[in-house]
């Protein structure tokens, strides 16, 4: 791909591996950025070409308008990700990223491009619903939510100026995910749901409900921890993804 296709705005490769036999595409959580997946890229660089999405409105894209609708975000991401399907592709999305990955996969399968597997981490199934209004809170309310979820760098939370810079993107992300669904659509790729056993945002039954959203295989893995269980359990999660990547190459 060249810069003219827009991929330079959306895709980040921290450890480029253009000759890798498989690709891993990572979708960040609400308020998150591509750099969240830097450790994943470092750990899996010998197994895949790891690419992380960078949504508008943050870091080097902070001057761009935020996207506060999951469907619009997926519509914009799908054509950028489509050229990556020249080899087996695995999607990994955490929290809001799980839903974005699901919607991108739905759009791409209409073009005959299907991921080998979709990892839906820390997010209840699209068919489940909750009344949530974080995006309607004042700034202090949003900051309180971020602290409660422990998913934001403590340095950011302690820097008033930096915090005020990132809040618009965070509010936009919360609006996108809190106004999404419920939907009963499906994808044709296998889904693995990953969830922490003490996640206030996703119960184990809500994660199990992803089973209804695939026409292929489904499994679930429960880890000790809260919404961001995957940070302390990184080694286990990475081992699971590595196994899928190697299996995809073996089958291919």
UniProtKB/TrEMBL annotation:
Gene Ontology biological-process annotations: lipid biosynthetic process
Record's protein name: Oleoyl-ACP hydrolase
SUPFAM superfamilies: alpha/beta-Hydrolases (SSF53474)
Pfam families documented for this protein: Thioesterase
GO terms for MF: hydrolase activity
Organism: Streptomyces silvensis
Domain Thioesterase TesA-like: 25-245
Coiled-coil boundaries: none
InterPro entries attached to this UniProt entry: AB_hydrolase_fold (IPR029058), TEII (IPR012223), TesA-like (IPR020802), Thioesterase (IPR001031)
Keywords, alphabetical: Hydrolase
Family: Belongs to the thioesterase family.
SMART domains xref list: PKS_TE
């Amino acid at each position: 791909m060249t810069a003219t296709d827009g991929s330079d705005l959306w895709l980040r490769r921290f450890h480029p591996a253009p000759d890798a036999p498989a690709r891993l595409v990572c979708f960040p959580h609400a308020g998150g950025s591509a750099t969240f997946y830097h450790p994943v890229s470092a750990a899996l660089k010998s197994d895949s070409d790891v690419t992380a999405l960078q949504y508008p409105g943050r870091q080097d894209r902070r001057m761009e308008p935020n996207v506060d609708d999951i469907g619009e975000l997926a519509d914009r991401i799908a054509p950028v990700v489509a050229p990556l399907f020249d080899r087996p592709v695995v999607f990994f999305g955490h929290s809001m990223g799980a839903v974005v990955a699901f919607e991108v996969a739905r759009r791409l399968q209409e073009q005959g491009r299907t991921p080998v597997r979709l990892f839906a981490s820390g997010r209840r199934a699209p068919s489940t619903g909750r009344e949530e209004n974080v995006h309607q809170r004042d700034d202090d309310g949003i900051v309180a939510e971020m602290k409660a979820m422990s998913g934001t760098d403590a340095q950011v939370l302690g820097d008033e100026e930096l915090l005020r810079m990132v809040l618009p993107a965070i509010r936009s992300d919360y609006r996108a995910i809190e106004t999404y669904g419920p939907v009963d659509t499906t994808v044709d790729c296998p889904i693995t749901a990953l969830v922490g056993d003490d996640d206030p945002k996703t119960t184990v039954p809500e994660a199990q409900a992803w089973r209804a959203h695939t026409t292929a295989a489904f499994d679930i893995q429960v880890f000790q921890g809260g919404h961001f269980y995957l940070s302390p359990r990184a080694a286990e999660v990475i081992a699971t993804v590595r196994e899928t990547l190697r299996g995809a190459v073996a089958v291919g």
